[in-house]
């Protein structure tokens, strides 16, 4: 019984761990609070370069923060620039670190996906697969399968789990001995019966 409880506790810990990681990393495209952005262009150099991965989280922002936002009427494109002025009510004034002009948009509210919390140089070149919702759903299905998959039954005897060559030979010898015991010796012959193992 204690092994079973230990197994259940381990499964529960895996499930809780997967849920916590999923909650922390769940992408905003699926209703979460994390946005993964792969930098493209030169407007944020030397802070970020093309191919860098920037992880941003939703929450309050302020002047000086690097934010990821979606400007209106650009088909869902993302911009990652620094807030240089403004406020949450009227909209933030943003500008790329390498630009000498301000952005034409003043993002506010739902347009802001989050502020940068983690920068991984050049990881974006390999991490584009992480942006796919299918990847996240697949990972959750695999984690769930690991937790729910039935374990080995406790009453199974490892010694009888599969016959090896010695076990097969012992079975053959036992069969041969049984046949000898059942055979009646020939009354006319004084010689005992001969059994050959092949």
From TrEMBL:
<keyword id="KW-1133">Transmembrane helix</keyword>
<feature type="region of interest" description="Disordered">
    <location>
        <begin position="178"/>
        <end position="198"/>
    </location>
</feature>
<dbReference type="GO" id="GO:0016020">
    <property type="term" value="C:membrane"/>
</dbReference>
<protein>
    <recommendedName>
        <fullName>Signal peptidase I</fullName>
        <ecNumber>3.4.21.89</ecNumber>
    </recommendedName>
</protein>
<keyword id="KW-0472">Membrane</keyword>
<keyword id="KW-0812">Transmembrane</keyword>
<dbReference type="InterPro" id="IPR036286">
    <property type="entry name" value="LexA/Signal_pep-like_sf"/>
</dbReference>
<dbReference type="GO" id="GO:0006465">
    <property type="term" value="P:signal peptide processing"/>
</dbReference>
<dbReference type="InterPro" id="IPR001733">
    <property type="entry name" value="Peptidase_S26B"/>
</dbReference>
<dbReference type="GO" id="GO:0004252">
    <property type="term" value="F:serine-type endopeptidase activity"/>
</dbReference>
<dbReference type="InterPro" id="IPR019533">
    <property type="entry name" value="Peptidase_S26"/>
</dbReference>
<dbReference type="GO" id="GO:0009003">
    <property type="term" value="F:signal peptidase activity"/>
</dbReference>
<feature type="compositionally biased region" description="Acidic residues">
    <location>
        <begin position="182"/>
        <end position="191"/>
    </location>
</feature>
<feature type="transmembrane region" description="Helical">
    <location>
        <begin position="126"/>
        <end position="149"/>
    </location>
</feature>
